[in-house]
Amino acid sequence: MNEPGMPLANPDPIVDLVHRIVSGDPAAEAELVQRFSRALTFLTRRLTRDETAADDLYQETFRLVIEKVRRGELREPERLPGFVSSMARNLFISSTRTGSRRRKWHGDSEATETAPDPAPGQLSRLLAQERAATVRRVLAELKNDRDREILSRYYIADDNKEDICRDFELSDLHFNRVLFRARQRYKELFERRQGAGQEFG
Amino acid sequence: MTERIEMDHSYVEEHDLVESYLAERLSESEREAFEAHYFACETCLERLETANDFREGMRQVAAEDLAQAATAHVQLGLLAGLAALSRRHRLALAGILLLLAVLPLWLVARNRDLERQRTALEAQLHSLEQTEAGDRRRNAEELAQARQAHSSEAAAVQPQVNVPIFLLAAVRGGDAGREPVSQLPLTPTAGSIILTAELATIDFAAYRASLRADGKEVWQAGDLHPDSRDTLVLLLPASMLRPGVYQLTIEGARTEGSWSVAAVYPFRVVQPN
């Protein structure tokens, strides 16, 4: 129930969040960060492929998004998720154009070919080892070599789905099922390993 | 300007956007729409994270396998390189490897030789030490004897008191072989002894004396002259006379140069009880 004199809460929580930020509600800004934190972390790491650069891009994106939302520059509040993701991508792209100051944000294929690959942190290396061990187990559990080859061609050789389906005489549905099962099993095993690690940690 | 796409779960699954997004196979408009979608959809974000992790894991496994294969390739390359060597180079390499294999054995054998030499030298050193010890012992004994002799000589030039004096009795030729009449008791501490032999006649210009024990001459002296009482007085070290039978023979010098027995004095040295 709204207070008398206050505008009615929008049934779309995203639109409501934007309205609250525009009206100067600091809690709404915190809620914005909390709501998009995980997705923005994923995107910035994917763009930069570097933890430190991703953190910088993450901070800068939120700073600019909140500034613009406060000033009412987001004319379609329901598009806030796309506004945040676009802001991150545009900042990243502009950094590639403005030169060396933000060169560390470069994580796309063009930049990664020329920029030195930053050494991964200890936690990242540990996670990579965990991922590899889990994937090995998934591959070992597969019932046939064909599925292993499908996964290898798709994930490692970057072959087209259509080419793989044609070579193995698979339907689109069958191909998706192989990938889905492998990912699901990976998720189960990885979460189990993480759980065991936390228990003993 | 990109075309705006409205996206929901069914669209994402139908077009397999998660994998296509990760493989960067989406158009710009599809990518923007999908990013906007997963920023608002926790389910798709989770699928995306899982698929991305699995993709990264697959690539990590491939990288590890590639590294292992590269190591194996290097080993195979060494073998292949060996096979590609000429016969002469292979023989040279085999010789080097053989040398490397034999070298430790040679070092062991060499070590054993050195050990044997060391043992022999130690034995030689030990023997020399023993010899040196024997020499030292002998030298000590000789030194002791020399000191004793020196002390005896020193004792001889020193004044002595109660020096034993024995008067020897001469025997005729027929008494030879009988138990001597003269018995000389000599204590082991006695330093010197004085023997007096009175001559029956003084027919010779000079005399000589000879002391024998068991047929062996233990002392002799020449150019002796009796004193005013026609007696020869002899001072002998007591150590010369161990217990036993002795015979002192006094001979006189004839004018033609031959010697004639003037008197014989047998006596027995005994150790007093």
Task: Give an overview of the whole structure.
The complex is a heterodimer of chains A (201) and B (273). Chain A is built from 9 helices and no strands. Chain A is mainly alpha-helical. In chain A, helix 1 crosses helix 2. The longest helix of chain A is centred in the last third of the chain and has 29 residues, at 172-200. Chain B is an alpha/beta fold and 273 residues long. Chain B has helices at residues 9-14, 17-22, 28-40, 42-84, 87-157, and strands spanning 165-168, 182-185, 192-198, 207-213, 216-224, 231-237, 244-253, 259-270. Chain B is rod-shaped. Chain A binds chain B through residues 14, 36, 38-40, 42-43, 46, 79, 81-82, 84-86, 89, 128-129, 131-132, 134-136, 138-139, 151-152, 154-156, 158, 161, 176, 179, 182-183, 186-187, 190, and chain B through 16, 19, 23, 32-33, 35-40, 45, 47-62, 64.
SSE-based structural type of chain A: mainly alpha
The level 1 CATH classification of the largest domain in chain B is: Mainly Beta
- Helix segment tally of chain A: 9
> Could you give the order of the helices and strands of chain A?
HHHHHHHHH
Query: Given the C-alpha coordinates, what overall shape of chain A results?
Result: elongated
Q: Report helical residue fraction of chain A.
A: over 70%
Number of domains of chain A: 2
CATH topology assignment of the largest domain in chain B: Immunoglobulin-like
Instruction: Calculate Rg of chain B over CA atoms.
Output: 62 Å
User: In DSSP terms, counting alpha (H) and pi (I) runs of 4 or more, how many helices of chain B?
Assistant: 5
CATH class of the largest domain in chain A: Mainly Alpha
Return residue spans of chain B where pLDDT drops below 50 for at least 5 consecutive residues. none
Structural class by sheet pairing and helices of chain B: alpha/beta
Rg from Cα of chain A: 22 Å
